[in-house]
Amino acid sequence: MWGDLTLHLTEKLSEDSLNDVKDLLLKHRYTYGYDTQLIQLPKAAVRTTGLGNIKQGLSLRAEKLEPESEEKYNYGSIGCFVNIKSKSEEQDQDKLHCITCAHCVDECKDLIDVLPEHDIGYTTLGKKSIYVEYIKDSIDVALIEILVTKIGHCCYGLRESKKNPEQCRDPQRRPTMEESPIEKRWSFYDGAILRRKVFKFGSATGLTCGVCMCDDYNTKEIMKNFNRVSKRNFDTNVNILIESEPDKQVPPGSVTAGGSRDTQQEQVRKFSEDGDSGSVIFDDDMQGDVVVLGLLYGGITEKDSGKFLYSYASHIMRLKELLENKHDISIEPALSSNASPQGAGI
To answer: Confidence band (pLDDT; 50, 70, 90) for 42?
Structure first.
């Protein structure tokens, strides 16, 4: 709950470890109580089985270089389309890319496929670019350069979210792309996101909504990476946790007939599942446009039951700044006067 301290643990604390926690909290002048919760380590939401116009939330597919099983592919989602421009080299025009997660295309062949909206089968969308940053559990972003032959089929706008809030809460049906509201102009967002209601479109779960309940999530792995790359001014406050928004029709703490509150909570649609990696976390702004806040990485589950707890994402501006500084480029939303090329076939 808001204001409580919960420590995520991968195993139960020993007596010595409990004393270490106590000393650490006292060092930071924290004298209140805390809860502990056993979790599985953050799991990347990549699918290894497959699930018009080319737009936000559609399924991406990358062929593995060395498949470990009969499944040949990794699957993720299109986040959004961006224009890349070099700051140091002369460039006639911006190059169109889409954002997704690096783990979806890591150790895969260069060409990346997309499943178009009209479901005619996977077709080549683009190729992996040099704009990739992958530090497990810490930084996970990749830009896919769109083939020239596919640029005209890409819809650059992002979907407005609040037109159909009830679609987020029905666990029995997945909203289709045709049911989604019209595409809007969008921008990157670098403001406060804690306790903000957010949305995403992913290829596995479609439209879902949740609440950002932590904007500085740190793990042992993140801190280890921080120590390793500290010379690059690594920002540990890069990762956020999102919990699925509860059904407003169910009062907090209520118990349904014949079931517990946990049973009722299971009726809330998960914010993300395998295959949603690479989806952008977004919201609508006061002007009626869309702001992008984060990039979905995966999910965190309870260790014993496997129950979904949170979705795991990264601040989009931290990723943007990291790639821009490393490659001396600018990354801007791919906006155009005809951002929604309806009827473009493939």
So the answer is: low
Q: Determine the Cα–Cα distance for residues 184 and 156; give it in Å rounded to an integer.
A: 9
Give the C-alpha separation, 114 to 43, whole Å: 23
d(CA 189, CA 282): 9
Burial class (CB in 10 A: 0-12, 13-18, 19+), 252: exposed
Do 194 and 212 touch, CB atoms closer than 8 A? yes
| End-to-end Cα distance, the chain | 47
**Alpha-carbon gap, residue 163 to 166, rounded angstroms:** 9
Q: What is the rounded CA–CA span in Å between residue 148 and residue 82?
A: 14
What's the length of the chain?
346
198-232 pLDDT, tens per residue? 999 999 988 888 999 988 887 767 666 666 655 55
- Helices and strands in the chain, H and E counts: 5, 20
What share of residues in the chain are helix, strand, coil (percent, to 5)? 15, 35, 50
Task: Map residue 142 onto helix, strand or coil.
Answer: strand
Distance CA 275, CA 269 (A): 15
- Residues 99, 323: contact at Cβ < 8 Å? no
Residues 6+ positions from 27 with CB-CB distance below 8 Å: none
Rounded to two decimals, what is the model's pTM?
Answer: 0.74
How far is residue 190's CA from residue 62's CA, in Å, rounded to a whole number?
A: 31
CA-wise closest residue to 58 among 35, 38, 37, 81: 81
- Spatial separation of the C-alpha atoms in residues 313 and 196, rounded to whole Å: 14
- Which token pair is 289? 């446009």
Q: What is the pLDDT of residue 40?
A: 72
Q: Is the pLDDT of residue 160 over 60?
A: yes
Contact 308/299 with Cβ under 8 angstroms?
A: yes
pLDDT in tens, 115-147: 987 667 899 999 999 999 988 777 899 999 999
User: In angstroms, what is the C-alpha Rg of the chain?
Assistant: 21
* 43-83 pLDDT per residue, tens: 655 544 332 578 899 999 999 998 877 789 999 999 999 99
